[in-house]
Design a protein that fits this description.
The chain has 22 helices and 22 strands. An eight-stranded mixed beta sheet has the order 12-13-14-15-16-17-19-22, with helices on both faces.
Length: 540
């Protein structure tokens, strides 16, 4: 089991300092503590362990430090801001690990942007030295980039010319979509291994400001204080995030609200998620008192951990079977209370966290089937999980009901900005809008009529039809299914976030298997060796 829990007191690679309403997060990677043995993390290069700490730090800023209004991301080393993802780690890793590593780092950088958009904490990246590859991609995820103007400090995306792969965490997309760098200039920049410095980097839109070394610290600090002054006040004290740990019994992960059972032989994992039990907070102060034990936070943190366990520790699981359990009225009441108090800083953070976990579920490179039986709780955010699944199998039984919750109208958006109802009914936007309004629970037959299930199954056929459906799915090519699912899940227009996962991840997944990158004579394999890479020059 991979432990995704981190804490600032035990960070090996980051230093988190809170200075009033400004937080400083400095990257200072300890080469002696790689995620796995076999490589050294030189020049502030990073691996999964480094990014786990970054993800933890961003999460703690949200929940434990609401007093923070601006974030400065910098380096604790003078020679390098960040050399990007560790090349030796990438060269030695399995293909699935490389892809899942890129996906995790993507989600971490998106969470940094979400911190700015929805929590009001603007981020400034202080690039004090050479900033390459994934290091510059981290900078691109910040609101502003300030660069030292000297003969050494430059920003670069050298993956194409040096490694024959792509920048793996959104760099290409953020250049043209977020920073709106001209296409021809972006083309030049992404094929310049040496990158770009100073005033020219500013002129091309690659950074926002360049300062002489003697001015750099003062200018960065002054700008951080300006950003903090523009942000609204939230609270002086946050809550404590306790670790999320499952009880592991063989291939079963048991949390308080979530259970994940892996069947390696069948290549399936069944996730059962439970609605709240017992009294839940009614307002913001109530949630502050409950802290991280409130269902609306703890359940979704547990689900997030379970999804990450499947990604990294169970690569051959091809199908996630979703089951929901519990009191429909209880989950809907929690959502009504969250909606009513969403202006409270902690309630807002809980809602945004639920949305991020749902998006992680959307982006799982596994088939997802939801089973709605007589014990199911297809309501509110659990209905969102159900609609996020590739198929919904519903039992035709009087005990089965479906209820759209108050958060489904827009507070839990997908990566491309649509609600799951809008995404489901692209041809009928008026129908999606109608379903999103407050209405009574639907029976199984009504849910089927309204388009909320794929198959409505007779109780006599339920067991056999479900078994056959699961067996058929896992018998198909996982590569073809991954491509099919990614193409079908996100309908409508794209945005920057969806392009990062839809275009970039798909291309990088393919490139990682190509001999030009990872073959015996590929550029990634031969990096640092005296022999140059040899390419198959055919374009495909």
């Amino acid at each position: 089991m991979t432990d995704f829990n981190r804490h600032p007191s035990s960070y090996h690679h980051w230093q988190l300092q809170i200075d009033g309403d400004v937080a400083h997060l400095r990257m200072n990677v300890d080469p002696a503590f790689p995620f796995k043995p076999g490589y050294e993390l030189k020049l502030n290069s990073y691996d999964l362990g480094v990014d786990m700490e970054l993800a933890d730090a961003v999460q703690r800023l949200r929940f434990e430090h609401p007093e923070v209004k601006a974030l400065v991301v910098g380096s604790g080393q003078e020679r390098a801001f960040c050399a990007g993802a560790n090349i030796w780690m990438l060269a030695e890793s399995t293909h699935p690990f490389k892809v899942n590593f890129c996906k995790f780092t993507n989600e971490t950088r998106l969470s940094l942007e979400d911190l700015s958009k929805h929590s009001g904490v603007k981020s400034l990246c202080a690039v004090n030295a050479a900033c390459a590859g994934g290091g510059y991609e981290l900078a691109l995820a910040c609101d502003e980039i300030h660069l030292v103007d000297d003969s050494n400090s430059a920003v670069s995306l050298p993956e194409v010319p040096l490694l024959a792969v792509l920048p793996g965490t959104g760099g290409l997309t953020r250049l043209v979509d977020k920073r709106k760098v001209r296409r021809d200039r972006a083309d030049v920049f992404c094929t310049m291994a040496e990158g770009m410095r100073g005033k020219k980097a500013v002129a091309w839109g690659l950074v926002d400001a360049a300062w002489k070394k003697s001015q750099f610290a003062d200018k960065v600090n002054a700008r951080a204080k300006e950003l903090a002054a523009q942000a609204p006040a939230k609270a002086d004290k946050g809550i404590v995030l306790d670790p999320i740990r499952a009880k592991v019994d063989g291939a079963t992960y048991t949390y308080e609200y979530v259970t994940c059972v892996v069947d390696a032989g069948a290549r399936t994992a069944t996730i059962t998620i439970h609605a709240p039990h017992g009294p839940q907070p009614k307002d913001g102060p109530g949630y502050e008192q409950a802290g991280c034990k409130a269902w609306a936070l703890k359940c979704w943190r547990e689900l997030d951990d379970a999804l990450l366990q499947l990604r990294f520790d169970h690569e051959e699981v091809g199908l996630i079977v979703l089951q929901t359990r519990g009191d429909r009225a209880a989950i809907l009441q929690v959502e009504k209370d969250l909606l009513a108090h969403r202006s409270h800083w902690l309630v807002n953070e809980i809602l945004r966290h639920m949305a991020r976990v749902l998006r992680r579920f959307d982006l799982m490179a596994r088939s997802t089937y939801a089973l709605v039986d007589g014990d199911a709780c297809m309501a509110g955010a659990f209905l969102e999980l159900t609609l996020a699944s590739d198929r919904v199998y519903m039992l035709d039984d009087d005990k089965v009901h479906a209820a759209v919750g108050p958060l489904s109208a827009g507070l839990l958006p997908m990566s491309h900005g649509l609600t799951r109802l809008q995404n489901r009914f692209l041809a009928q936007p008026e129908h999606a809008a109608k379903l999103a309004t407050d209405q009574p629970a639907l029976t199984a037959a009504e849910a089927d009529e309204q388009g909320l299930c794929t198959y409505l199954l007779d109780p006599v056929d339920w067991e056999d039809d479900v078994r056959i459906a699961l067996e058929e799915r896992v018998s198909m090519s996982p590569d073809a299914l991954t491509g099919m699912e990614a193409s079908l899940r996100f309908g409508g227009a794209e945005n920057c976030d969806s392009k990062i996962f839809g275009r970039l991840s798909a291309w990088q997944n393919w490139i990682f298997t190509r001999p030009n990158a990872t073959g015996d004579e590929g550029a990634l394999t031969r990096y640092g060796a005296p022999e140059s890479a040899k390419f198959d020059w055919r374009r495909t």
